Amino acid sequence: MRPEILFPLFAPVTSLKGVGSRLAPLLERLAGPIVRDVLFLKPHAIVRRTPAVLSAVRDGEVMTFEVTIEEHQRPRAQSQPWRVRVSDPTGFMTLVFFGRFADQLESRHPVGAKRIISGKVGDDKFGRQMVHPDYMVDPAKAGEIPELETIYPATEGLPPRRVRGFVLEALERAPALPEWQDAAWKAREHFPAWREALERLHAPESEADLSPLTPHYRRLAYDELLAHQLAMAQRKAERRREPAAKIAAGAIAEKVRADLPFVFTGAQARSLGEIRADLASGERMSRLIQGDVGSGKTVVAMCAMADVAAGGGQSALMAPTEILARQHFETISGPLNDHGVGVVLLTGRDKGKPRAEKLRALAAGEAKVAVGTHALFQDDVAFHRLQLAVIDEQHRFGVAERQRLQAKGQAVHLIAMSATPIPRTLELTVYGDLDVSRIDEKPPGRTPVATRAVPMGRIAEVEARLRQATAEGAQAFWICPLVSESEVSDLAAAERRAADLTERIGPSVGLIHGKLPPAAKDAVMAEFAEGRLSVLVATTVVEVGVNVPNATIMVIEQAERFGLAQLHQLRGRVGRGRQESACVLLYDPPLSETAQRRLDILRRTDDGFVIAERDLELRGGGDALGLRQSGFPDYVFADPFAHRDLIAAAGDDARLIINRDPDLTSERGKGLRVLQELFDWKAGMALKDAG
C-alpha cells in the first residue's frame, strides 16, 4: 500500500495546471505518466539573460537586448519568413519568424515600440539576426524574463519553457519526506535533505550545479541506487530463506572431469567449488557464472549437472537460440552419456514421436539433463525431479520465462551464465541479487587473435587476402555496422557488401540481418557452422557463444562505430580453435582520439574484464557498454561512470539494513519503505534479475 504522503507525486500528469488532453501525451512521452516523473526531469543547461547592446553580439549565444521596432518586412511567399528590423543606439538586428505570424506580430509589436528581446543570436553572412526570440516583451514587463533560466528536454509542441513551468509546479507538490539515509553517511558526504536536493537540481546557480558530482545530485543518485540495492538484497534474503535439496559433490562429475582433454583453470575450479558449496548448503542457489567468450563456463555447469544427476535429480540448460542449444548439447552430451547420465535436446523443431519419447524420458526421470530453448518451459514438458536450471545468456530471457522453467520443480537451484563481462564497479547494479563467480582465466592452448587496424581505403587488400584464405579452407565473419537511422539502408549496404564479396570470392557467402526471421537466421548460421559457407556477412552482432572453430578471420567494417566491449565480443567469435586467427578493424580516417584509444586497447589486450573497465572509462555515462541489453537498470539519476563509488556504498548499506532490520520496522526502516515506493524498486516487483 503506497503511503499517503506520496499521493501528490503519484497523481496523473493531467493534474498539473495546463496539462489537458492535447499536452498530456506529449508530457507523458517526455517524462512519464505521473507527477513524480515530471519532478524527476533533469535540466540539461542554464541560460543567463543579462542585458547587452547590439554592437556586442556574440554568434551562437543567448543574449538579451532592449530595442526599438524599426520595420516589418512582409514575406513575398508563404514559404518565406516574416522579418522584423530592430535597433538600439549601437546597431541593428533582424528578428526572423517562420509560420503565419503576420497580423499578430504587426499588431502586438508596432513600429516605434520599445521591446526587450532575448534568444539565440547569429552573426553571419545574413547579418545579425535572432530566429524566433524566446522572449519579446514590453519593458514594463521585463520581470517576466528570468535572469537565470534552466533548460529542460523538450519535444515538438512542448517547448523547454513550458516544460520548466510543469517541473516547478511538480516541485511545489513535492512533500518533505522522512529521512532514510544513515545520518553519519549523510554528514560525511555533505548531502542535503531529499527535498532540498531537488530544489537545488531545479534551481542551479551555475553550470557547475548541473554536474552529477555535486552533493545534491549525488544525494539523488544514491537514493535511487539504495532503493534498487535494497530491493535486490531483500530478494536475495528471501531466496536464502527458502530451503532446497542438499546436493553433494559426486563421483560422476570427477570422472567426467578426468576424461576432459584439458585441466580446469584455477578460475574454473574455484567457480565449481563455489557452486558445490551452494548446492550443499540446503538453501536455494542463485549464482551467476560470468566469464569471457571461451573461458569454459559450460563445462563448469556440466560438472554441477553431473553432481545433481548423481543424487537422482535432473537439470535443464536453456539457451536463447536453437543453434546455441545444439552447441551446448554437443558439448555436454558425450561426456555425460559416457558416464550414464542421459541427455536430451528439446527445441521447437521436435514434433511427433521423437518429441513424445523425449518428454516421456524426462517425466520418468530416465533423462537426467534436458538442453533446449524456450521449448523447455512449455506446458507439456514435465520433469520427474528438476533440481537445477542453467540459463545461458540469461539477460536474453524475460523474468517470467526464467521463472516458468524454475517452476517445473521444487525450489530449483539456478546457475545463470553470461559471456558479457561487466566492470566490477557495475556488477551490483545488474547482479546484486545473485552470487557471482568470475572465470577470469583463459584455458591453456588458446592462440591469441592477431588484431590489426586498417583504413577503409585498403579494403581491396583485405578482400584479396580473404579470397586467398577461404581458397585454403578458412572461414570468416564480415560485420557491417548499423550506421543509419534506416534499417532499409543498413540492409542495402550489407547486401551490397555480400554481393561484392560474392563477386570476388564465389557463391559461398552468406548474409544474416535483423529482418530475417529467427529460423532463417539459424539456418544460415548452421550452414556456416557446418562449413558450407566460407564467409558470413552480418548486420547484427553475431550470436554470443556461437562456436565455429574453423572460423579464423573476423573483419569489422567501420570499427570506430562500435563500442570497445562490443568489438571484443565480436573478436571472440574467432580464435576458438588452435589455428592462428586474425581480426581486422576497418576504419574511416581520421579517427577521433577516443576511437584511436579504443582500437589501441583492443590490440593490446584480450581480457574481457579489463576491456569492460576501459570501455566504461572511455565512454563515461550514458549507455556504457550497451548495458541496456545486459539487464542494466534504467536509472533516472544514477550514472554508471560518475557514481560508481556510490554503487558499492549502496550495496554495502543495503546488506547492513537487511541484516539489522529485515522487516524495515525501525524509524529509518519506515523511511526506506517510502524510498522504495518513491522509486518503484520493491522486492515483490519483477526486478531485472535471474528469477
Describe, in plain words, how this protein is organized in 3D.
Among the domains are: 50-145, Nucleic acid-binding proteins (OB fold (Dihydrolipoamide Acetyltransferase, E2P), Beta Barrel), CATH 2.40.50; 251-439, P-loop containing nucleotide triphosphate hydrolases (Rossmann fold, 3-Layer(aba) Sandwich), CATH 3.40.50; 449-605, P-loop containing nucleotide triphosphate hydrolases (Rossmann fold), CATH 3.40.50.300. It contains 22 helices and 22 strands. Strands 12-13-11-14-15-10-16 form a seven-stranded parallel β-sheet, with helices on both faces. Strands 17-22-21-18-20-19 form a six-stranded parallel β-sheet, with helices on both faces. A five-stranded mixed beta barrel has the order 3-4-5-7-6. The radius of gyration is 31 Å and the shape is globular. The two termini are 24 Å apart.
